[in-house]
Amino acid sequence: MPQHLWIKMANLVFELEKKLSTSQPSTGIVRNIDRMKTVLEEAGLLLLNPLGEPYNEARTDLEASITGEATGKLHVLDVIKPIVYTQQEGSRSLLQKGVVIVGNK
Amino acid sequence: MSSTINFAIDLGTTNSLIAKANNGSVDIFKNPSGMKVTLPSVVAFRKDRILIGDKAREYVEKDPANVFAAFKRKMGTGESFFIPNNGSFKTPIELSTIVLQELKNFIFTGETPASVVITIPASFDTVQSNATKEAGYAAGFREVLLLQEPIAASLAFANKEGKAGMEGQWLVYDLGGGTFDVALVVIDDDEMKVIDHEGDNFFGGVDFDNGIITQLFIPYLEGRFNISDLSSKMLSANGRYNKLYYQLIYKAEEAKIGLSSHTSVDIEFDFTDEAGETHEVYFSITRDQFEGIIRERIAASISFIRNLLSRNNLQPSAISEVVLVGGSTYIPLVRTLLTQELGIKVNTSIDPTTAVVEGAAWYAGGRPGKAEPAPAAQQSASTPSGSNVPNATAIEVKTAYQANSRDLEEYLAATIKNAPAGSNYRITRSDGGFDSGLKPAAEKISEMLLLLPNSLNIFSLKLFDKQGFPLQVSIPEIMIVQGKFSIYGQPLPHDICLEVDDTDNNTTHLELIFERNAILPIKKSITKTLSRTIVKGSDDQLLINVLEGSRYASPSSNLPIGIVSITGRQLKTDLVKGSDIDLTFEISESRDITVTAYISMIDEEFKQAFSPSSRSVNITRLQQETDYLHRVGKRQLEKLLKQEKYEEGAALQQALKELEVIQEKLRNLSTDDVTDTKYQLDDQKRRLAQVIDSTEKDDQLLELKEEYYDKRESLRYLIEKTGDKNMLQRYEHMKAEENTWINSCSTQYLRLKISEMDRLSWDIRKKDISYVTSIYMYYSMKPDDAYSNLSEIRLLKKRGDEALTRRNPDEILSIVYRMYDLLIDKNQGDETMKGTGLSR
């Protein structure tokens, strides 16, 4: 399967997980999501959710929209797309920047 | 040295790109951070660093005084921009130089081009053109050729269609993210020229995104959730819905892109109303709605064209075609209105986002370069103001950092001696996830490096002189391991494998879970399929057998380190063959192994932890293995005796006798025996397995290797015949791996590899209609009474004969599979192995 389709699939898995995080999904659903993530890993993709992480301008793994006054320490307030790295034969490279909204907590 | 220029840069108002002509093709370089081809033409002067591109753009609204975008519009003016953060001034030329230098970092081939073609708008006058050249020289190019953007785009289209050039006169319609230009281009005396142009510097795709927000999202949300003046609440930095604004910008762009290929799209987002309640909003947008929003703006762009044509006394019929450039020309309404309103053919054969740089590279590929590339170390000296640079080899850099870290960021300190005044440094992570930006190089510097969890993070520190040229200093890579390596962590001494059934060969083999030298702690989940049905209440068991040893060896000669058995007595319902089982394996830093099995069919979880001090031996499994080894050994002994190899035979005979003793002892051992007898028997069994393995191995290995090589050769032939690149890649990968196992593998492993070759061959053959037809004919020729269901087989044969006329391999195969299911005698072996119950 072409890589861009794998990335699309990774984004959908991420969205699904995000939606379920607001409720109490059954263990079966959580397991299925974990399985999907395992398949993505097997396809060489590493998915990261930066929600809540500190943000600074050196983070080229994120494409940020800065909300509010943006003074003081910034954190990732919302993640629209996850960070995706590709991992092959020991080397890793950024495939998709995380699309995030950052601001003061 | 290349004799042609080859390198080209589209120095755009919004985005810039770099490409290279390469023997008849064009490669567009990608940003090593994020792998996009475009670099936003934005430079930000933050407090202690300079950011370029995407990171700089993030601060356009938040820190407008120190962030500079669209400075291309000011090229050739005497204007300078004041930077409050460092109290200095920068000209548009200097800002363009920074962007050009950043684009040079996209060239991953290590080349440092001396000559380049840079594109300029058709509207640029001589002063603006010279300003662009100056920026090119300041960025280190020794020869800069300029090319008008519409000409560059036209060259890309001309090359694509294999024409020497375009015909007659045509329009280049360039609608980007924030600017619109249209140019009238003609070939006059064999020369491609821009005759006239029109443009709007404040019209582009961003306006369409905003239209979706203001005309669709906001009225909908205000109506549904009874909110007033949502627009102001979104746009104010301290407004309650400021975060929503950024979410909606993203969603609007997503909708716009989706509507280029679909007639309607569904957008979803979360919305928190004024009472604090969060709602999931599902919003459908049709292409008609979107077109209603943008129609007026697109029509306005067509008025520009009408003006352009009437000014040049031309009728639309005099124009041969309109070539489309810029990402916003993907919008179908743009294409439709241009055709409808002007009746001119629209040419969309080139990716509109890269057309300009692509055409410029074609041009560069045909222009001889006159400048000799300067050695990198001398490049800065070649610039007008860089003559006092000291010898870069005298620069000394020493770094200090913690090579192993448990934190998500690690402190780096460095000393830099003898760096020229005004130098900068930059630290980047090799995977593209971290970039310090350009920072002033002081004698002592420090930086917090962001680490990616549980992995090796490699950073490089580079120095640049005040003009932005790299200084030639040898600085070792900074390597920091996050998480995994700790004083408690250790590498695995052997592979950790799972035993799974190989029903084709009536044996079991090992499947790798964790590779030797993997660092603890480690966790992995896999999904397997049950290879046989386990009946509720029976003594039959499903075995999850975890072994330590070489993945290439046979399961019985490896050390069992953990086994989970699920017997029929533990089950509330039958476990049906083919159902999935999720297995999770975890090994802690102190080598505790936890195996969790979840069977979704019955929604039950089985979990067991094994400590390294207590070995797990399952008596039933040990019995099965011993019986299997005895069978194999006996068969092998008969063979050896027939071949009169009495010496080897004697050793095998002795091993078989010892096995029989073990079998006898096992028969008398209860399944819950608490003594260490089972461990002793397991050790003995493993030793005997190695004896039997080796005699069997020597004999069979040669035969199997021959079979493997034969199959590999016929697979290569098949792949070459089909020309399937993906298959070729898989084949090459398998072949490259071969050296790691071919001389040390077990017969089981070799059989497994042969099966892999068979599967690959099947993947190819199943698409070959004549091959599929021959299989169908084989089953179809069998008498009806060879199958278990007479009426169904008759129907299948009828359907199959019809399917043959349609020549669809998939359809024919679906019938063949069912025929095979119904076949009574499938020629199965009489000795069926019990195995683990897990198939590969």
From TrEMBL, chain B:
Q: Does the keyword NADP apply?
A: no
Alphabetic keyword roster: ATP-binding, Nucleotide-binding
Q: Where is the composition biased (Low complexity)?
A: 371-385
* Positions of the UniProt region annotated as Disordered: 368-389
Q: Which Pfam families match?
A: HSP70 (PF00012)
**SUPFAM superfamilies associated with the record:** Actin-like ATPase domain, Heat shock protein 70kD (HSP70), peptide-binding domain
Which GO molecular-function terms appear in the entry?
Answer: ATP binding; ATP-dependent protein folding chaperone
Q: Does the keyword NAD apply?
A: no
Source species, domain of life: Bacteria
Q: Which family does it belong to?
A: Belongs to the heat shock protein 70 family.
From the Swiss-Prot or TrEMBL record, give the protein name: Heat-shock protein Hsp70
Name its species: Niastella vici
